[in-house]
Design brief:
mainly alpha, 2 domains, extended, 51% helix
């Protein structure tokens, strides 16, 4: 399905039949229940490591993963959304976090920096592109990543594609000089 169609557009969809989405959830839920039943039985017979490697458990994990992918595809195909349904998020207890829930939420709202670096060698042989073209290619890719982040609900405050000393900057010590000089 193309990302150009109405499903992926900015306009509300209106009426959507949720039955196929619920069917995908039901199939995934049934597989998860099967997994729990098998895991309890296998663990009663074997140690933790052996249970993790048991062919029945591995087959059920593959089934759960496949059904989760089908749920993603159903949501994506009918709603145009990109659901993140496989993340595991543990929230610390208030006592463990050492702070009130409001303080924690305020800290989580602070923007953080993320990096993706490349060390690129020139093309071998004759080519229509060279190292001067890399920033343009990365800029195009960066635009696509920004769009994906924004579509996922993130606020991308700033971003850049550049050439140069990003890896050298990782060697800087706390006083801002390289290698402590």
């Amino acid at each position: 399905m193309s990302h150009e169609d109405a499903t992926h557009g900015p306009a509300p969809l209106g009426s959507v039949d949720p039955a196929p989405l619920h069917a995908a959830v039901d199939a995934l839920a049934a597989a998860l229940h099967d997994y729990v039943g098998a895991a309890v039985g296998v663990r009663a017979e074997f140690g933790a490591h052996e249970a993790d490697e048991d062919p029945r458990i591995l087959a059920l994990e593959e089934r759960v993963g496949t059904l989760n992918a089908r749920l993603f595809d159903a949501l994506h195909g009918s709603l145009g959304m990109h659901p993140d349904l496989t993340s595991s998020v543990w929230e610390p207890d208030e006592d463990e976090a050492g702070e009130a829930p409001g303080q924690q939420a305020q800290q989580e709202a602070v923007a953080e920096e993320f990096y993706l670096g490349f060390v690129v060698a020139p093309p071998a042989g004759t080519s229509d592109v060279g190292l001067d073209d890399v920033v343009g290619l990365l800029d195009d890719a960066g635009s696509a990543v920004v769009a994906r982040l924004v579509d996922s609900g993130f606020d991308v405050v700033e971003w850049t594609a550049s050439r140069g000393d990003a890896f050298d900057d990782l060697d800087d010590d706390e006083d801002g000089t390289e290698d402590g000089r």
